[in-house]
Structures are given as C-alpha cells and as structure tokens.
Amino acid sequence: xxxxxxxxxxxxxxxxxxxxxxxxxxxxxxxxxxxxxxxxxxxxxxxxxxxxxxxxxxxxxxxxxxxxxxxxxxxxxxxxxxxxxxxxxxxxxxxxxxxxxxxxxxxxxxxxxxxxxxxxxxxxxxxxxxxxxxxxxxxxxxxxxxxxxxxxxxxxxxxxxxxxxxxxxxxxxxxxxxxxxxxxxxxxxxxxxxxxxxxxxxxxxxxxxxxxxxxxxxxxxxxxxxxxxxxx
Length: 232
Prior knowledge:
10 strands; 22% strand; 5-stranded mixed β-sheet
C-alpha cells in the first residue's frame, strides 16, 4: 500500500505538479472522518448499585430464583471460583460439576445441595456457596393503595417495600400535589397495615402484619418477595 501511494504521488507530480499533489492530500483529508466512523466503539457495561437492605439475608428464608447471582468457591491450591447466574429454567450450571436445580428452594437448601455435588468432583479443600446479587422480581399490589399495579422490586425486599412503592407520590402523576416529595406511605387511610393478604405463585396464602414485624423482627409477618407475589 505504501509503495503504491509513492508511485501515485510521483506520477501525479509529473503530470500536474505541486498543485495536483495538494489536491490529492485534500481528498485524503476529506475521507479521513468517514474512515474513523467505521471504528467499533468501546463497549460500556451498565452498572447498578446493590439494593439497600434492613438486615442481612437469612439463608433459611430467602428463596433462590432465576437471575440470582451466586459465587462458588473451591479453595484448593490454586483456588477456583465461579460467578454464576441462575438460568431462566431455575438451574445453576457449575463448570466441571454439572447442572443443579435450585429454583424455589431456600438459600440454605441450595447451598447444601450444591456443596454435595461439588464434593463428588473435588475431594480436597473447602467449598463455599454465596449469594452475591439478589435478583429482581415482578409483584402485583392492589387494594387501598395510591397506584395499584405491577412493580419490579429486588427479591431481598419485603412486602412493606412493595406497598411503599405503590403509595409513592410521583411527580409525573396526573394532578400531583405540590408537596410530591413528601415521605412515602401516603395511601388511603382505610388501608390496613395489620391485615395484608399475600398470595404466592404456588397458591400459598400469607397474612402480613407490619407493626408486628417491626416489634418482633419475625420475618413471617413481613416476608421477602418472590416472583408472582400478589399483595392486597
């Protein structure tokens, strides 16, 4: 390419002189931007902050589901780690170990089952299974709330957080009041906070009592959310 360009300049100089050479370089400058635009841009990965939590996740009450991110550690020499995402089918595909069904099981049960499978392959060293990033789930909130509908909320959040979202006054709402930045939980005063009905995707019915949860911190009165939850 360089040799061809040199010959082109020499021939152009013989035929048209310096003015022709200048025109040749001007044409190259005009085509330079078009060449630059064909360069593949750098890939920018989106980042998101981890969800805020009021307490550490309990392995006995958190249920694993699709899109949960898990960290598998096999502490041999050298150590081996895998950051894995639960598949849409609800399985965890562990390299060199295999596929393990994990959806709709507690974190404690998943940890025990995965460790059993890993130890069949790795006979030495310690192994760990850790939840790194909780997934997001779609839940439905209805009844005496300001904005009934479907909401996307982290699975580490509880029922009261979904109700807060449904009662949030938003600036883009029709006839939004001037004090739209006021605190949350400004729903209908007729709404109960002690007799909230939660229906799970599998048909299970749970009674939610927010004041009792606040007083006792007993998670059964304000459970963490799961896919398909319906809150009334």
